[in-house]
Amino acid sequence: MTQAPSTALSWENEPYSIKRHGLSITNCDSEPVHTPGCVQTHGALLVVRLADLSVLQASDNAQALLGYAATELLGQSVAAVIGQENTDLLKELLVKAQLDCNPTHLFTLPSVQAALKPGSAAPLDVSFHTIDGVGVLEFESTGRTDAGEPDYYALVKKTVARLQNAKSLEQFYNLVTHEIRQLTGLDRVMVYKFHADGHGEVIAESRRGDLDPWLGLHYPAEDVPTPARAIFTKTWIRPVPDVSDVLAELVPLANPDTGQALDMTFCALRGVSNMYSEYLHNMGVAATLTMAIRTNEDLWGLIACHHYTGPKHVSYQVRAACEFLAQVVTLQHRAAEAREHGAYRLNIERVHQQLLASAGAEGALACFTGETASLLDGIKAGGVALHHDNQWRCKGNTPDNAQLDGLKTWLMGTRLASGARSLYVTDRLVQAYPDAAAFAGVASGLMALPVSLAEGSLLLWFRPEVLQTINWGGNPHDKPVVLGPHGPRLSPRHSFELFSESVRQCSLPWLAVETEAAVSLRMAVLDLLAGQVEQRSGTNHTMASSNEELDAFAYVASHDLKEPLHGIHQYANQLLGDPALVGDANRDKLDRMVRLSVRMDNLLDALLHFSRVGGSDAAPQAVDLNQTVAEALEVVGFRTGQGNSVQVPRPLPMASCNETQCRQIFVNLLSNALKYSDKAQKHIEIGYIDPAESHPRPGCPEGSAGETIFYVADNGVGIHAKHFQQVFKLFKRLHGQSSYGGGAGAGLAIVDKLVGQHGGKVWVDSLPGQGATFYFTLPGKAASTNGSAHPKAPAT
Predict the structure, then answer these.
(1) What does the pLDDT read at residue 274?
(2) Distance of CA 220 to CAs 32, 87, 473, 519, Å?
């Protein structure tokens, strides 16, 4: 479902409506599914002005459900529909509750039909949220019967307990499908995982006995278009109780105050794309319920539920339980994966720590591809290549040096350009880089890690080709185009018969435990390289001796302390996972052991990190701080959207500093801003104050006059003035770990040490509950920019 012959979009000069323009679609990725202009007719929708709660727009089926024609409601107070008492409640919630992009159940309203003919129709559940400065009221049939409702809290509690005790990923996902099918009564429930290239695979399934199994089937990436995936990164659940429903359009189609279409991303009633409804019809599906599974802010997969025997309304209460379970699955599937791959992860960490200790002692990274020990002892791969100091060092089966040079040029020019990504992973390298066909036998899979973009240093892991047979749910190459009322348009395929395809030039996929270990290794190597630069630039024998002692300490801490600690952690987790071995009396003790082992591991990591911050003067160079900030945001994994934002009011200037250490300053300050926040929407501002500006400089220490001041401001919990000095001390924490994610208390101490090495100062200004602003200076003046040389601010 990708592309049909190009035609002009007929809604370019007016808001989109599925009913008016849905048959013009030539490219699924171009359809504005978040502004469909229509709702599903099992419910009605009103858009209200927040200032006076008067109706701006109404769905044209309002008469049937609300007793008023849509045109009658326009301009009236919403009290005409929900009553004055409920309107007063709504006003109170607008003041007290967080309703932006957050649909909230308000009350249950007797339906018009129920009022006229008692018992003839179910009452209406009313939910409300705000978006783009307007309020959205949704009215849905409750779906409740006189038989009463089960105790959904008790059901969900039991489900969560069963998920936590799953001993393998397969058991975990099978439990997910079974429990949600039991809860909803739908005919088929699947866990649908997205692969790196975007295509999906059914990895677990619970179904009615007479249905054909779909477990193991693959589906093209185009079956879930990009706009639909984007919505599932913002909202958790999507109900479609009747695929054959005739949609109701909003009246008027555009907001009369702004002329804009309504963003219906968070609306349960959001109209269904013609492409999607046709696709479901072709599969014989009558109703669906879909939930998101995420990894951080990325869409990992879906819990897809299908019903075949007619429309199926899932009540608000059941959907709320399913939405909660989807969030639990999002949190728990990584934990289940960690349990399954726990021993593997511990071995990778052990190997990496030993190699880092050797690299620190030898002052070189050559040991990463050594004869007796190498990176191949950790992450499973066929070969590994390191490009450092302008030469390749290889271990195992790898492309030759000329081929590696070509691959490096391509990676640095595209996939890893300008530090846009900290890792590139693929199990189908030839598809992205056709020249790799020459060495697909040894390198069909690639994991590429930029060690230092400035020096062009790279770490590459390779996996060999593995011939695979993929079973598709229909021919993935079938992309039919039909003639519609506005010309040729895309049509979903009609055949979903088993289609087997032999695939070459693919490797085994990379696991999350492997990619996470690679990213952690990168940060450790960056610290190591920064320490080596400082040691080479120092001339003091005492400092060199001190560095040797720190290297020795790093080895002892990483090997003699961390390895047994990991063993304790793993053993305690294994016991917790087997209820037959652990009684209730000992479960709390084991839980505490696991928490303490994690805490101790974090403390050791923090101490190691702090010790690696060099003691000699940093080697300064001209650094574009905009690029440094962009890389820091990538490292901390901050994603905009859902109300979160990063503001860079103006491009940052060039600065004379050590690039690696300056990046670490921003990483720690950003991590601190994200960690210590009690706000649903996190806002961060990164900027600077020029010496020539009369900008206020709260708490500016003596000796900072005439220097450029950089700052990172947040809207977090804030700090009381009496703690301003304490926060920069090692292992000093002001907030409990359970409340704000904790940490070892080394981040700001490292910032203080790094800024001090540059000859600068760091300080904080804050009020409790009103966020904090951390200021710091760097040596000398920031390099001024002029004209076309002005640096570009990070995209936010």
Answers:
(1) 83
(2) 21, 47, 9, 29
